[in-house]
Amino acid sequence: MNAVDEGRRVQQAAAQQAEAVQSLYAKRVEIYPRQKIGDRLAFFQKWRWAAVWATQIVYYGLPWLAWNDRQAVLFDLAARRFYIFGLVLWPQDIVYLTAILIIAALSLFLFTAVGGRLWCGYACPQTVYTEIFMWIERRIEGDRSQRMRLDREPMSARKFALKAAKHGAWVLVALWTGYTFVGYFTPIRELGVDILTLSIGGWSAFWVLFYGFATYGNAGWMREQVCKYMCPYARFQSAMFDKDTLIITYDAARGEPRGPGSKKKSRAELGLGDCVDCGLCVQVCPTGIDIRNGLQYECIGCAACIDACNYTMGKVGLPKGLIRYSTTNAMREGLDARQMRRRIFRPRVLVYGAILLALISALVAGLALRVPLKVDLIRDRGALAVETDDGRVENVYRMNVSNTTEARRAFTVSASGLPGLAVESETRFEVGPAAVASIPLRLLADGEAVAPGSHKITVEVRAVDDPNVAVRETTTFLGLRR
Which one of 275, 309, 335 terminates a domain? Predict the structure, then answer.
């Protein structure tokens, strides 16, 4: 009996060992994108670096611009004011900020429907900072083959020094990026002084370090993993694609069957297509995919494979464009560039464009018609209606007047709606630039003409220098109960 049991246990152990174990998490394969294609930057490489320079000049430079003796772009959360050049937005203007965010999202949808993931390939912060970090890596550790060889070597003083220099440079760029990010919410010059004097606040320090750590981790370590697994845009982009969306495509009809060819016979005689199977398109891909396998969600539309393939085609004397920007319908129906452009204005694009145009028009009109004055009228809860010595009825209020311009302004206040209604307090006052003033307001009306109960009245605040800048607020005036 023991022998039988032992035999069963041996059989079960052997069966368990024979079972294939499928891991839920695939081990990351290190990608070493090749940068150098020929002796100089290729066509789309130039566009990618132009996008890097343009986006980073704007990002790093914008907080340092001055406007009306202040930072040109500042989202001052502590003071609850957003400055965008000459525009000052208050919490009451949240509708404008919401409209801007909706317009940005819808613009991305429209751009994706027309041009695919061009945003990802050229202007996405993940792509831009990965490009910057890889440039630093190449400058310190060398090109693709040198980096691969260095990583295979055992640790040595040379390897440690190169790795330390690379990560040190990454940390500096990441911290400067975090400092700039916080500089959009705290005056960047004051923030710099606080850091140098070690008097930076806790939250500011946290966000500088957090954003710097995120930049360092995403662009230095995770790289393509962010695009492949973390970015939701890669997952739902298919909902915005159709067969006329511009994507990077491999012309399989022309390229297959692939092979290296021969000097003695033509490719047609060997029964080969134009793809020489050099693998350069895979080597340059930042996400490590083979575009010859068709459209994949990992493709970010950076066109590195197009540059690589065109370089190879030029070397072997074959026409360029084996890998190119095209559409599914164009590849299937053999459409040329002019015919593809005609299909841009299709229903999906027209709907996106119409909604986007309507939102932009509404935002522009709203900002143009926006009155740079806000008034909140609050009844003084500590005092009800009071009868004065001359028989009139007095009500007391408090006005919070917001001057949304960046110049000191004088205002007048008046009231209407009841017989003999007049402002007994100061009728003229001033409010500083981009400031809020709390103004006491005493209103008196004819006691004989005001019946008991509440009555609707109108209080008007008007700018002295511009009569068109005026706000009317409706409130209640209480009569005396006899």
Answer: 335
